[in-house]
From TrEMBL:
UniProt: substrate binding residues: 178, 182, 216, 235, 336
Taxonomic placement: Bacteria, Pseudomonadati, Pseudomonadota, Alphaproteobacteria, Rhodobacterales
GO biological process: glucose metabolic process; pentose-phosphate shunt, oxidative branch
SUPFAM superfamilies (UniProt xref): Glyceraldehyde-3-phosphate dehydrogenase-like, C-terminal domain (SSF55347), NAD(P)-binding Rossmann-fold domains (SSF51735)
Record bears the keyword Oxidoreductase: yes
Naturally occurring in which organism (per UniProt): Albidovulum inexpectatum
Keywords, sorted A to Z: Carbohydrate metabolism, Glucose metabolism, NADP, Oxidoreductase
Annotated function: Catalyzes the oxidation of glucose 6-phosphate to 6-phosphogluconolactone.
Gene3D superfamilies per the UniProt record, alphabetical: Dihydrodipicolinate Reductase, domain 2, NAD(P)-binding Rossmann-like Domain
Gene: zwf
The protein's name: Glucose-6-phosphate 1-dehydrogenase
Protein origin, superkingdom: Bacteria
NCBIfam families (UniProt xref): zwf (TIGR00871)
GO cellular component: cytosol
Pathway it works in: Carbohydrate degradation; pentose phosphate pathway; D-ribulose 5-phosphate from D-glucose 6-phosphate (oxidative stage): step 1/3
């Protein structure tokens, strides 16, 4: 099956921070891919805006280098790249000053979709929003895209939302979480709500527990200063893992509509129970050796703070206080320098009430595994008879639901999450973007957890690079008679 490409309307997209790392790695290559696919019209324009001393030719050269570095070779077409670059422009702009704003006002067209991507530090969001209005650049139909972090706690999130709301309506604000743009995440909603098969089983009567894992093999790298002020809880759990939890646990919306979907996600966040201290395990990676035997620094070395109590790993047991999920635990886990790079949601169903085959036949629970990276797709483990004579021997096999043929061989034709989300911004579709009250509700649940371990003076448990995290994290499930799924690519 070949995916359909539906072109979007002509647009002007201004990328504030247009020379930054995110623009180079994700935004600009993603826009090129959409142009290559025929989704971006010839009338579209991309305007990089930054403080760098570049002219238009210099910026186009930077964009070309970005495509060369981050777009697969089989997708790089010299003629298409040249045509794409003709739609790329550059303005030198001072976010907190006056330079460049009048030039931008003259450049922006009023008869096309206007979108402004804030790929900058959150401290600049207010300045950008204020100047877009003060210079008459944005209008009631304009859209702004806001990158995380959406605040550092509830107080700062509320202040950030108030700053944006002073200049833009909520319907104009697109808070982007790239996890929601992944093809498999959206297929999760399709599998749940477009088929009768799973929804009758999607509750505490039939689901034993749910595991959500986002594991990385890299350390904090060059983000040490930022990360040491955030940690895994603020950097990953409060946003990425929370959104995945909501999509798994939410009730069916009355239709696939932005506010209908986000209303149901908000109900999940508000139903989260407070987390007890013994239901949380925090960790920091030690110094160790890489796969090639070279010495690797510890977390404390990476952040340059020998007294840091910030976690690079967190595992927690979460419960949802509603009729659908009462008594079903959700186990969340994320960390740096773990065994493999993998993101997975595993819905573990209960065992059959009575096995007619006896207790020694290698029985396993049915597990629906949703893999977000790498190798996006879904599998459902089921029990079948092992082929051959000699009695009824059971074995576990995966029922493949990766849709590989439909989505493109080896995932080469699957759009990157940023590609989909940016096109949704141009369409005006907010379904896969967070609403302001969602962000605040997530912080309202997260803040007391962080305040608790800070008040107790808890120190993260050390763990070895290349492991599955601290030993205490294994006990989090063992005491419930369960075990973590193996972290593997």
């Amino acid at each position: 099956m070949v995916s359909r490409v539906i072109p979007v309307d002509p647009f002007d997209l201004v990328i504030f921070g247009g020379t930054g790392d995110l623009a180079r790695r994700k935004i600009l290559p993603g826009l090129y891919n959409r142009y290559l696919a025929g989704q971006m019209p010839d009338e579209a324009r991309i305007i990089g805006a930054a403080r760098a001393e570049l002219d238009e030719d210099g910026y186009r050269q930077m964009v070309a280098q970005s495509i060369e570095e981050f777009v697969p070779a089989q997708k790089r077409d010299a003629a298409v790249i040249d045509s794409f670059l003709q739609r790329v422009h550059y303005l030198r702009i001072d976010a907190r000053g006056t330079d460049g704003w009048e030039d931008l006002a003259r450049m922006i067209r009023k008869d096309v979709v206007q979108a402004f991507y804030f790929s900058v530090a959150p401290s600049l969001f207010g300045d950008l929003a204020e100047r877009l209005h003060a210079h008459g650049i944005s209008g009631p139909e304009s859209r702004i895209v806001v990158e995380k972090p959406f605040g550092h706690d509830l107080k700062s999130a509320r202040a950030l939302n108030a700053t944006l709301a002073a200049h833009f309506d909520e319907s104009q604000i697109y808070r982007i979480d790239h996890y929601l743009g992944k093809e498999t995440v959206q297929n999760l909603m399709a599998v749940r709500f477009a088929n009768i098969l799973f929804e009758p089983l999607w509750n505490a009567r039939h689901v034993d527990h749910v595991q959500i894992t986002v594991a990385e093999t890299v350390g904090v790298g060059g983000r040490g200063q930022y990360y040491d002020q955030s940690g895994a809880m603020r950097d990953m759990v409060q946003n990425h893992l929370m959104q995945l939890l909501c999509l798994i646990a939410m009730e069916p919306p009355y239709r696939f509509d932005p506010d209908a979907v986000r209303d149901e996600k908000l109900k999940v966040i508000r139903a989260l129970q407070p987390v007890r201290p013994d239901d949380i395990v925090r960790g920091q990676y030690r110094a160790g050796k890489g796969p090639d035997g070279t010495p690797q620094p510890s977390y404390l070395d990476d952040v340059g703070n020998p007294d840091s109590r910030t976690e690079s790993f967190i595992a927690m047991r979460v419960e949802i206080a509603n009729w659908r999920w009462k008594g079903t635990p959700f186990y969340l886990r994320t960390g740096k320098k773990l065994r493999a790079r993998a993101s997975e949601i595993a819905v573990v169903f209960k065992e059959v009430p009575h096995s007619i085959f006896g207790d020694d036949e290698g029985w396993r629970e049915n597990v629906l595994s949703i893999r977000l990276q790498p190798n996006e797709g879904m599998t459902l483990s089921v029990m079948i008879k092992e082929p051959g004579p000699g009695g009824m021997r059971l074995t576990e096999v995966p029922l493949d639901m990766t849709f590989a043929e439909a989505l493109g061989a080896d995932g080469q034709d699957i759009p990157d999450a940023y590609e989909r989300l940016i096109m949704d911004v141009i369409r005006g579709n907010q379904t896969l973007f967070m609403r302001g009250d969602e962000v605040e509700a997530a912080w309202a649940w997260t803040d007391p957890i962080i305040a608790g371990w800070e008040a107790r003076g808890d120190r993260p448990r050390p763990y070895d690079p290349g492991s599955s995290g601290p030993e205490d994290a294994l006990m989090l499930l063992h005491r419930d008679g369960r075990r973590w799924r193996e972290i593997r690519e």
